[in-house]
Amino acid sequence: MLFLDIIDFALFFAYALVISGALLAIGFPIYISSKNPESLKGAGMGLGALLILFLVGYLISGSEVLPSYVEFGVDAGLSKFIGGMLILVYLLSGVAIGGIIYSEFSKSFKNG
Q1: Distance CA 76, CA 85 (A)
Q2: Of 55, 29, 24, which Cα lies nearest the Cα of 42?
Q3: Quick check: 66 and 76 in contact, CB under 8 A?
């Protein structure tokens, strides 16, 4: 029984650390940029681009639900949301890989 209590404590401690880290990751840049509000423009544009990419992924994702997923509480709305998130991950991965390839080619042509 003591082992389970330690695991429960560790899980709640990990939850608290994740929540405090997320709050600090959001709050600290806002506090720093409050001294220079012009710097928020770039962050807002990046957040807007992420929201647009998610919207594209959400709109093209399907809402099919397999019978084996119903027992886990997955309905059509949740299936569409998960599909949108997966497509967002694929899009962002493609952008990252494209950026890496572009930077490597541009460096090789500048030096060559």
Answers
A1: 14
A2: 29
A3: no
Residues 6+ apart with CB under 8 A from 29: 43
Whether residue 1 has pLDDT greater than 70: no
Rounded to whole angstroms, how far apart are CA atoms 29 and 25? Answer: 7
Residues 6+ positions from 57 with CB-CB distance below 8 Å: 83, 84, 85, 86, 87, 88, 90, 91
The span from the CA of 23 to the CA of 12, in Å, is 16
Which of 33, 59, 61 lies closest to 46 in space, CA to CA? 33
* Per-residue model confidence (pLDDT) at position 2: 62
Q: Provide the phi-psi class of 48: left if phi over 0, else alpha when psi is between -120 and 50, else beta.
A: alpha
Q: pLDDT tens digit string along 64-112?
A: 888 888 888 889 999 999 999 999 999 999 999 999 999 999 988 886 5
